[in-house]
């Protein structure tokens, strides 16, 4: 738009108003991308966990955690161990490069250890974007219990949004 100012106070004022209106209504410049810690994060609940795992029990699972390239991920578990023992549960986590097939070798093991308390307990782990580079999903393939009956209250994962 080519607006030329003309002589006179009124036309110069209109020119200035038109110019300011164009500046104020112009779209803002694109926002600068934040680092991986600056993106909002979605918390998603993992379903089909067994409510109670008895001593020595193992359960096969297929819980998919989708990943985004260049982003990390985190998992948090909550449970109660009613016998105040220092047992542990092990989660078997397999990375996937296609989002469907889990690795059957080099399966990652996340061992969560009870503190010997009968109150609610939490454990969390996370992976950097470098550790997850090239994977499109993590798949929790199994969970095992080494000691007394554990009550699983839930598990959530978080992945930064794009």
What does this structure look like?
- With 162 residues, the protein is mainly beta.
- The protein folds into two domains: 1-30; 41-160, Peptide-N-glycosidase F, N-terminal domain (Jelly Rolls, Sandwich), CATH 2.60.120.
- Helix content is 10%, strand content 41%.
- The protein is built from one helix and nine strands.
- The strands form two sheets. Strands 1, 2, 4, 7 and 9 form a five-stranded antiparallel beta sheet that branches.
- The longest helix is centred in the first third of the chain and has 17 residues, at 9-25.
- It is globular and about 40 Å long.
Task: Produce a short descriptive summary.
The protein has about 160 residues and is mostly beta strands. It contains 1 helix and 9 strands; from the N terminus they run H-E-E-E-E-E-E-E-E-E.
Topology:
Blueprint: H1 9-25, E1 41-45, E2 52-53, E3 58-66, E4 73-80, E5 88-96, E6 108-113, E7 121-127, E8 137-145, E9 150-160
Antiparallel strand pairs: 1-9, 2-9, 3-8, 4-7, 4-9, 5-6, 5-8
Question: What features would you highlight for this structure?
Answer:
162 residues, mainly beta, Jelly Rolls, 2 domains, five-stranded antiparallel β-sheet, four-stranded antiparallel β-sheet, 1 helix, globular
By CATH, the superfamily of the largest domain comes out as Peptide-N-glycosidase F, N-terminal domain
Structural domain tally: 2
Q: What CATH architecture label of the largest domain applies?
A: Sandwich
- The CATH topology of the largest domain is Jelly Rolls
* Terminal-residue CA separation: 36 Å
Backbone shape? globular
**Under the CATH scheme, which class of the largest domain?**
Mainly Beta
Contiguous uncertain segments of 5+ residues: 9-35
